[in-house]
TrEMBL record, chain A:
Residues 146-344 form the RNA polymerase III Rpc82 C -terminal domain. Residues 197-230 are annotated as: Disordered. One of its GO terms (cellular component) is RNA polymerase III complex. Residues 7-66 form the RNA polymerase III subunit RPC82-related helix-turn-helix domain. It comes from the Eukaryota. Residues 350-407 form the DNA-directed RNA polymerase III subunit RPC3 winged-helix domain. It is found in: Nucleus. This is DNA-directed RNA polymerase III subunit RPC3. Belongs to the eukaryotic RPC3/POLR3C RNA polymerase subunit family. Residues 211-228 have a biased composition (Basic and acidic residues). The keyword Transcription applies. Component of the RNA polymerase III complex consisting of 17 subunits: a ten-subunit horseshoe-shaped catalytic core composed of POLR3A/RPC1, POLR3B/RPC2, POLR1C/RPAC1, POLR1D/RPAC2, POLR3K/RPC10, POLR2E/RPABC1, POLR2F/RPABC2, POLR2H/RPABC3, POLR2K/RPABC4 and POLR2L/RPABC5; a mobile stalk composed of two subunits POLR3H/RPC8 and CRCP/RPC9, protruding from the core and functioning primarily in transcription initiation; and additional subunits homologous to general transcription factors of the RNA polymerase II machinery, POLR3C/RPC3-POLR3F/RPC6-POLR3G/RPC7 heterotrimer required for transcription initiation and POLR3D/RPC4-POLR3E/RPC5 heterodimer involved in both transcription initiation and termination. The gene is POLR3C. Pfam families: HTH_9 (PF08221), RNA_pol_Rpc82 (PF05645), WHD_POLR3C (PF22536).
From TrEMBL, chain B:
Keywords: Nucleus. Residues 108-195 are annotated as: Disordered. Coiled coil: none annotated. It comes from Bos mutus grunniens. This is DNA-directed RNA polymerase III subunit. DNA-dependent RNA polymerase catalyzes the transcription of DNA into RNA using the four ribonucleoside triphosphates as substrates. Specific peripheric component of RNA polymerase III which synthesizes small RNAs, such as 5S rRNA and tRNAs. GO terms for cellular component: RNA polymerase III complex. One of its GO terms (biological process) is transcription by RNA polymerase III. The keyword Nucleus applies.
Amino acid sequence: MTQAEIKLCSLLLQEHFGEIVEKIGVHLIRTGSQPLRVIAHDTGTSLDQVKKALCVLIQHNLVIYQVHKRGVVEYEAQCNRVLRMLRYPRYIYTAKTLYSDTGELIVEELLLNGKMTMSAVVKKVADRLTETMEDGKTMDYAEVSNTFVRLVDTHFVQRCPLVPATENSDTGPPPPAPTLVVSEKDMYLVPKLSLIGKGKRRRSSDEDATGEPKAKRPKQTTDNKEPIPDDGIYWQANLDRFHQHFRDQAIVSAVANRMDQTSSEIVRTMLRMSEVTTPSGAPFTQPLSSNEIFRSLPVGYNISKQVLDQYLTLLADDPLEFVGKSGDSGGGMYVINLHKALGSLATATLESVVQERFGSRCARIFRLVLQKKHLEQKQVEDFAMIPAKEAKDMLYKMLSENFISLQVGCL
Amino acid sequence: MASRGGGRGCGRGQLTFNVEAVGIGKGDALPPPTLQPSPLFPPLEFRPVPLPSGEEGEYVLALKQELRGAMRQLPYFIRPAVPKRDWRRLPRELRIRVRKLQKERTTIILPKRPPKTTEDKEETIQKLETLEKKEEEVTSEEDEEKEEEEEKEEEEEEEYDEEEHEEETDYIMSYFDNGEDFGGDSDDNMDEAIY
């Protein structure tokens, strides 16, 4: 982890969880895996505070624990996961665009709380939506449940690892920490719940916590009576799926900018068809035949098979190589070159940064060096067609800001 | 100064170091004298690109602000503890009777809090006379009590200390408070009139 990343993590933790959690979190990020007492000793915080902080961090999937030999539990921070907190607004906005306000609130609650049971999420979201509705109207639990199920079906929300069921509970003392099991096949299995109810508006009597003194503090009997039907089954937001969505969006909008709306729709269809068949880290999607693509195009699009074929050929011939042709069966087999596409997008971003920072002539030099990998001073001047003095000046400027580096070779 | 005086006889304008090493050759004009310190920030040639605007950009920005604010209200935001006070020097009535309970991280606490009128009265006084920050901590503590029945892994703010010495001493229990819920000295949030 670079110093800048650690500093950023520190600020994020402080903003969202306060100074104590920040101290513990940053300490773990810096030093790696450590047991409880060592953390307390090294940070100079009381054991109680460390315990609280670790609970919060684990709840939010920022710290994991492992039982080592001799029963010692060690805690490890996930720096990358902390940095993802920057993207929370984007995740929530994505959910809003796909599943409207209900979906937005579900994802927001899951992100703010780390992990929740489905019943808790549904209840909270229904209450929140009811607040915003007109007087007299309430949000039904069933509708929120439906949206939740749709989010799970499209893998945006997934189950947290489970506590394994203990077969025999009297084989000695329980382990110091449960080893959570990730169940692949149950990851997106929604328990059969019958959540019946409607959202409640927050009544003024609920605000007694801050308000007037009462002789008897009323107990919350309503929540205690019913046992939670899905106790122990927790859900979390599946960040990788959101990242996949962002990736798809980036590719589609790049194609739309470079070519036209129809090509981007074709690419979007291809990506959608590959969602379940292609793992997220794959270099290219599974081959799709032109016939299949034609059948899967969105309903509103009335382009003929011939036109589709022409578009596909055009896309495959484009020098950027977003789409590649892998065979001729079924009217032509086409793939999307994911890694190549992302590489091109990254390069374009870099060039844009250089252009905005240093100007278009520097950008020209930068593109040259990027393309040719290694260039000598003289070659830069010749290829870029920039006078020697200015070329030297620009190269030095980019060198001083670490965009370009020198490599000393022997002659 | 001594070397200057010594070099006066050799030639005018002689400096203590070799001028050529700096890059000013013999006979070259010296650079113009600088009459003021160089500007703090050099003029910026290229302005940065504006932030993403448009519907998505603004919505995401608004969301970010909202999330930051919302997180502060949640129980996951742990506030630093109030420092210990010396109770001998402060009026008795400011001391808040708090029962503290040591607990392990893994056990689940559902303390039964029988309503106590005396405790609530003191809490009333506390509410009227505490610092804003103190108020928030108490509020968050009470909020957390309500959320005890929810998530098992969720953290509780309120600490309960087991009064093990209850039967053994002559002092009243509030003597042993560690001042966690100290009522502040300032009258910032006084709602009642002072006579």
